[in-house]
Protein 1
Amino acid sequence: MVESVLQNLTYFVPETALVVTFCAVLLADVIFKGRPRIPWTIGLLGLIVAGVTAFQQTGLNRPVFDLMIVVDPFAVFFKVIVAATAILIYLMSLWSDEVKASARRMGEYAALLVSATLGMFLMAGATNLLMIVLALELTGLSSYVLSGYTKEASDSSEASLKYILFGAVSTGIMLYGISLLYGLTGATDLIGIRLALEGQAMTHTPMLLISSIMILAGFGYKISAVPFHFWTPDVYEGAPITVTAFLSVASKAAGFALMIRFLVSTATPSLGVDVMAVVQTFEWPKLIAIMSVLTMTLGNIVAIWQNNLKRLLAYSSIAHAGTMLMAVTVFSQNGVAAVLIYFVVYLFMNLGAFYLVMLVAGATGSEDIDSYKGLGHRAPLVGVSLVIFLISLTGLPPTAGFIGKLYVFSALLDAQWIWLAIVGALNSVISLYYYVRVIRNMYLRDPDSAPAPVVLTGAQTVLLMVFLVPTLVLGVYFAPLVDWAHASVALFGIR
Amino acid sequence: MTLEQLMFYGLGAVGIGSGLLVVTRRNPVMSALSLVLNFFCLAGLYLTLNAQFIAVIQIIVYAGAIMVLFLFVIMLLNLRDERALSDRLSARKIIGAGLAFGLLLQVLYILMSAADGFPQKDEALAVSTGTVEVIGVQLFTTFLFPFEITSLLLTAAIVGAVLLAKKKLD
């Protein structure tokens, strides 16, 4: 027993690092009272260690702890994305006025960022319904509190409360679905569920359908897909901007990882296995296709009316989740790989956009699109960078966003989902409208009054380059990323 | 009628009766106390199925901790105008009734689909899975990992609760 636990622990290094960091940050916060920099630094080091050790797991493929979680290339890919996001958010927080305003609580902020990251690491690898729920809750609880971090601001408290209520309801629905699924199959690990379903094809189909839809609702909430998106705009607007950026990338990545793994391991025909009864009787791809169309269209159309750039980015992130869902629809290796590629691209361009909104809000005190009038002339570097991020979010060449969309659409066309690809392309056109509105304000409009200057320090510029350079480089040199993504999904053995 | 059947019908009747009291009483404190009684009846039913652990947990967690919290909140809120409240929320009432009806249909469906014979109660199996000892062993061997993750979950929850509940410090 002890030997097997110790042996399993050697495959659990990144998560162990996060657990130790979490406890160390909490303790350091109490011991070094009034010096929040110390727990903060410990948290940063812990995240870097976790990210590096997660990356070193590349190529491993084995179940750990009695099939509770697995370490496989797919999980490692998402762990690296989550760790990278967490580290970048951590650095962004250095210049966030919202975080600094409650500097005494910075230790807890660091601890909760670490525990949220841990939850997402577990989500990426969870192969057991029990672990799926625990990982979702660990992530959820940490995110609820993080979004209410600046609780003196009433919209932050409101965001936190809404998030908790929606989260509790969706967890309840999902747990109900899970309990039904367990009752039908008698297994909690995904492989066992699949075997049980293949064995007893067709019986209990209505019940299976209900339970699957309930579980999908839980995932849909996490990736804020329509119609489970209601919490997203308010939470994203009310939460501190660093937390918003974290949720919009890392939380979604972990949610997608979980959803893809669940669907692929329980309901997707793989090489050598007959198409399962569930897939025949119920058309999952169609359901997910409809979800993706609704998500994209709603996100994009509502984004047009937004005057607050943070809220606009919130709706745009809903739309991006829809784009990625399109690729999930295909249920093929190309499709899943396209999601992975999109996430890496999305990480840099979305975090970059949020970072600039944060810096501009710090200088001008406003997130309104009107306050961006003339910004391109006042602060050339900020203006040009924001243009690049927005163009990349639209998906135009030569930026990385184009590569992300290119692989999504080529996966769709390979699988003959022509109508879906057309809807997706139309949505990109809609998104161009509201992204360009910001650009127009920056370059073609003059400010009403003398605005505050936006000046970047050296360190801020370096961090900006961390976002900007990959957004440009991945637009022209993307072969390694594509290879990595394909290698990460090869294990599923789907066509 | 065996003693076991007597227990089942007795506990079932009291359980349903107290369940009705929960939704019909105007006084929220009365409703909450009826719910406690209902939980005790459920715990008794679990005991007749040899599920000792769940019976104990039912009483400690639900009847004990959660219901005390419930009562506490009800008394703190001092709900005086619940009469007006019950008249206003008709839309929510309909949705609630709809959900309850859906649950009833689901239970009936399961009962109907199993009409060709319920699995007989397996005394030995029930004893070997329902006791505290068996569950404890499982918890610290097969489910050791989720168990440990739960402790982290609770730590994060406590930190979060403190962070949200703390009065403005700075």
Protein 2
Amino acid sequence: MNNLLRRICFALASVMLVHALAFFMLHSTRGGPFDSNQQFSAETLAALEQRYHLNESLLNQYLNSLQGVVTLDFGPSLQYQGTSVQELLGSAIPVSFILGGGALLIAIIVGLSAGMFVASSSSRWRVAAVRFSGSALLATPNFVVAGILISIFAFGLGLVPVAGHRQLSSWLLPCCALGLPLAAQLFVLIQQHALQAHDSNAYRSAVARGLSKRSLNINYILRPSLTPVLAFLGPATAGILTGSLVIEQIFSLPGLGTFFVQAALARDYTLALGVTVVYTATLASCTLIADVLIMKFDPRSEAVS
Amino acid sequence: MKALALLPLLCCCSPQPAELTVANGAELDSFDPQLATSAGSTRLLSAVYDCMTAIDPLSGELLTELASSFESSDSNRQWRFVLRSDARWSDGSALTLTDVRDSWRRLQRPSTAAPYSDWLNDAKIEIVAGALQVNFSTPQPLFATYCTYHALAPIPAILRQATPGVIPDNMIYSGPYKIVEHRIRDFTRLAINTEHADFSTESFATIDFLSVDSQWTSLNLYLDSQVDFIPEVPQLALDKLQQQYPDAINITPSFASYFVRLQQDDQQLLHNKNLRKALSLAIDREQLVELIGGSRRPSATLVPDLLPNYVSPKATSTDYEAARAALAVAVRDLGEQHIAIDYLYPSSEMNRTIAEFLQQQWQSVLGIKVSLNQLEAKSFFPLQKSQEYQTSHSTWIGDYFDPFTFLELFQSGHRNNRSSFSNIEYDSLLAQAQRCADAAQRLEILARAEKILLDEYAIIPLCFDSNIQLLRPSISGHTANKFGIIQWQHLRRQ
């Protein structure tokens, strides 16, 4: 319990530290939110700076921003006038979580099944085919996967919409495009550990004891492979749940991913800090959950930590 | 996996598609007409706000809209507007002169932080004898033209009283449509305004403006029949679209110009006019527009050639021999054999193509070494503003349909000058044009000013921009026009 509490405190401290770093890095970058081709007049600029408290000292601005993190009120967006960062995050988080959740589900199902198949199959050709597909997917960026999926399933076969999210089927392609490259990573990881488990003395003695194939697969191949998979999935889940700029743009999904780049480029300080905090908190939570699960599956890790 | 449980909810909450769907580009910067500046905002706001005046999309003539008449006096220092008696808000209440006066006063207030507050500057706005009277301290020949832009559209009291930028609930509108639903970065639904003077049951009852960041995704949505109208199609898709969808595609020149700014204060190499001339004449603009694709047109002048009564002065576009001769003189004057310059540009695929083309042309024709300095937009503009460059990429989209919107950029001390160009004769011609009450004579004066700008090689014009629209052929009522005006209430499905 003490261990868990310590980790939670560490996660909170990480969020604060990342927020502080992001704040000072953003404010030290050249250019401000109101620099554009159409230069505002000095009066307009002064009024805007006053409205968004940008005329206050950097320390004051940081303390205000820190208060925002604690109260979860990040203030108004500088880029989308009249809209608060909470509203923007509130509209984007469900979209990204659905996209990320779907992609993760696809990645786990496809990656785990392929990994287990390779570890337990006796057909060399099939194993080679699965390995080749995995390597090909691993080497293919997700926007290429998206393009191929759109060409085949939306324009070619007309089975699903090309973009948008008004129909349930609209989510299939973006989830696959985001999930399949992750599935390939998972597959490589799991097959490596599954093959090690397959060659282990424990597995051989279990076979000698005459255990069923199902029991062998679950207890002697899948279970030992789960620890590295969970350690990988923790941060990967945070990454995938907080959206993907490319996939969201291709499929016109109003998720979080776009904000990461746009907010920084637009010097939308409040929004950029909002998404940074959300990302860091998600990363810290996912890593924490993964650690807890690892402790459950592999008690040795608790002793080590 | 909890998020997946939200999936059916999110889809079920999505309304049925509207009668017309438009891919309107990225999310609007603001729904407040006094604060919005993006092209997407202008398109949407033109559907929900009427202005005092309007531009005829075909002839470019200035017409009345909410005003029944307008006139200027005292050498354009005083403007008077009479309001139409049937002007109504979308809730049926009367749109009054008080609404117009208070809207313009809000635009003036520094606390509104409106980008176009300059247009009213120190104006005194009052209601006199049933008309709105605006008194300026200096002549404002273009004020009625400014009034065609949404920044000067009357806004209702409920919006005037709200925090600038925040759109209150129960908002009312003056245009042919009203906003009935908005989902951030998703869509904005408009419904027909039955109180509008142009109301017709044949117009589309609902229109969805989708927020779509990527122009290529907009194109995919059109090809998938989810979208009927794309007001801005990627230029690189032009050739293919012209072959496959000749009935749907509309190409129109737009009131926007690409040019190079030259830092020419007396400490700089480019203070030398012959060097500026050499750089300008060494560019093959025909080849440039071919390279960047689309339907842009090469230009040797600053003001796009779209205005009915304005003729830009003639200027030489490309002349390699003259360029080399000018360089020889410049080298002699400067006493430098090997001239090297830098070119600053904001990062984008197209800007990089332009930069590399200029680098190659200046290197191969003149032997000038050019170092390219690419920065993302927010870092680029402060550097350009502080004039920490020698040559720099520039674009300008006219705010209103008059040469002044381009020519004022190079007035001495103008905040958008950014190139140290300062010419007493140029400044005095612009001031003279502002004082001139005769419209034709005024344009002649402006053409003379543009001639100075070009003769001095103060800038290097490159090309005029264009706009490509994709509209489903089954929709009628829209004529593509160089002013980019879309009269939403006139669109019909055949």
Protein 3
Amino acid sequence: MHTILTDAAKLIHRNFEFQYVSIAMKDPTDEKFRYVVALGLIPSAEAAYKEIRYSHADLFDESVFPSTKVSTYTHFYMSEDAPYKPGEEKSYNRPSQLSVERANPDDMLEGDYIDVFMQGYLREVTGYFELAGTRSEKLPSKVTIRWMELIASLLSAIEVHKGGWKS
Amino acid sequence: MEVLISKRMKDPQGTKFLLERYAPVPNTEDEQIIETLDSLATHAKMPGQSTAAFLNVTARAIYKSFGFREISIGIKEKDGMFRCVAMVGLRDEVKALRQNLSYTLVEMMDTRSNPSTRVNKIIEIHLMEDKPLKEGEEGIYNRPSLIGKDRWGSDSMVEGDYIELSILGPNDELIGWIEVSSPRDNKFPSRSTVKWIEFVSIITATFLKLKETAKGGAR
């Protein structure tokens, strides 16, 4: 399953507009989400990513990670809302640009990111894609987001059949 | 602290912009198709679902999204024979007849008695002119009285024409097929429609193999 997740991240990185693609999965041993694949990040940011652990409650704590839910699967986290814990600035490729102001509503800034959640049959969250940094520096198109949701949905169906991502 | 609180407040204009830009209602044909395939993936997660039930959902998804009135899906069963398992848009008598037909791998691959134009390793186009109706075979067609009618244009798709998409296993071995015919506009589908159905055949192959691995059987 890890190979499938890595291939999916590469496919997204190669065929869509995101510069940074990472995938976090729920670890069945401690029920915490951790990043298992990260593409496009500088080594220090990738190392910081791999250290992060979130419980389900952490992940959806709107006081820490304010988001806009645009569909069943997708949440947008915008830099104005500072959607990161103190110290997590290290997980950004260009932390000095986190305070850049948005000139247009469709700009994609350094601190913006999108989470697309993978869900099991009972809609329980089993993992998520984290996507950031478009090459055009604009927010992705709607059809791109729908593609991300379809890929997440197909991966979660594969995960169900394989009995977990660690298989 | 005040600065921190103000930073943590969501920008209402920004939120409104995002909700409008990414509204879940599909605006384009591609978004509509992706939504249908997403519901197919959701069905695939259903615990204990039979292969036949999954293939019926797949056939209905193709019927709904790609403009074909007749869809059949067959798979290789445990005895090594290929049989039709899911059908949409066919008359009951045609369904009953097709359900009772079985083919060996050699018969499935026999291009002499079943000539076609191969587009790639998955897609074959079968034309009515290449396969004249044999006595006793009328029953497998939905509208046999239309067999042999003239083709009114090079892109017209007539009764007896069909597109067959192979469902291939991990080593490109044939494990099933999807057959589509009778488009609502009576024309051969666009390249993008065929590519979408090819994608469906790949998704179907993935779940057939996963089910087989989980249960040790195909059906």
